[in-house]
Amino acid sequence: MLKIDVISLFPETIMSALSASIPARALERGLATLTCHDLRTWGIGKHRSVDDEPYGGGAGMLLRPEPLVDAIEALRGPDSTVILFDAGGERLRQPRVRALAAASHLIIICGRYEGVDDRVRAYVDLELSLGDFVLSGGEPAAIVLCDAILRLVPGAIDAASLSEESFSGELLEYPQFTRPAEFRGVGVPEILLSGNHAGVAAWRHEEAVRRTKRQRPDLAKPTKGSEGS
Predict the structure, then answer these.
(1) CA distances in angstroms from 192 to 11, 173, 175, 188, 197, listed in the order given
(2) Domains contained in the chain, CATH given
(3) Which end of the chain is less congested by CB atoms within 10 angstroms, N or C?
């Protein structure tokens, strides 16, 4: 069973966001555990201080190394993977999500302010980023990662739902339709109404190739029989 520990200054925001839908079901079914820890538990002194001004000057505050490292060492086990969200980290992609969903224990650190004292990185196994933009803190990123992971835990959702969705392979997901068969003059492609399963499968593949080339050319790779699509 996957165990996730999150270290944050605002742990309640993470639990609240993951208390509904698929993540909540995965946790309720005991398929994984999620515990959010207040970094101030390991804070310094009477006021549980966790931050200070950067040496050399500059705007903002940095998270101090002592509380973060103490928290990591208190939670780390022999099979733990410690993750820090950082703007310079590896761009989060589905293969990495799948690998983390197969892990046994994740410790996720949510940064704040101007980031963390650089010495903390020596205690981190993986640095991740959601993209080329800046958040107020690591909490939204931790929510995204936990949601993406928990839906992949076996038993969380129907395995068939995962097999053909975007990023399950090298293509985006094909277009999908439901009732009504016609909406404001736009109909559902006839092949989807035909009952021809082989034809439907071929159409879906071609449309997935077409959509990937159009919307995410960085993902598109030549596919046999798709050169003219």
Answers:
(1) 46, 15, 11, 7, 9
(2) 2-158 (3.40.1280.10), 164-215 (1.10.1270.20)
(3) N
